[in-house]
Amino acid sequence: MSSLYILIGVSLIVSAGVLALLIWANKREQFEDPEGPKYRILDDD
Predict the structure, then answer these.
(1) Could you report the average pLDDT of every consecutive run of 10 residues in the chain (45 residues)?
(2) Is residue 31 within 8 Å of residue 25, measured between CB atoms?
């Protein structure tokens, strides 16, 4: 039963880390324009 408490704690820590990484990536605008680069290649200025 004590291993269950350890696994719950580890999973909470990992999920908090993933959430922190997603928030960090969103603040750095990593998800703003995912389709832009493929159309930018075809644009001949």
Answers:
(1) 96 98 92 80 74
(2) yes
